[in-house]
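help with this.
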Amino acid sequence: MLKPGDTAPAFTLEDAQGEAVSLDDLLTHGPLILYFYPADFTPGCTKEACAIRDIHDDIINSGLRVVGVSPQDCGSHERFAERYDLPFPLLCDPKKKTTKAFKLDGPLGIGSRRGTYLIDTDSSIVDAVLADVTISRHVDFIQRAIAAQQPS
């Protein structure tokens, strides 16, 4: 996993509608929460996506944006987002180039790991969490990022 202080690797991936989205595009809107997950429609990934959906207004109101990345194709992402009413983009990484660049390839190259990054507008990684099974750690991470954006 990349560490705080590292530079986030540049990428361009398709979203669920097949539109190209780059890291630079995403960072024009402010700091980004970029989360990687293994697969659409699995119990853990569904729980994580829905938990992020449930705090999405807080994410946006804090000036952050959130985007998910996994190896599924655009059609799968579109169905997943529609079924669970996900208000944030899901990006398709079927060859796992971006997943590998962020050092989240699965064991022995199978699947992908569950990791979340907070990336600042200069592409620097501010913070990161890796937790393959304990999904609540990712939501807690996002809630801390939201709190950190609030003026003191």
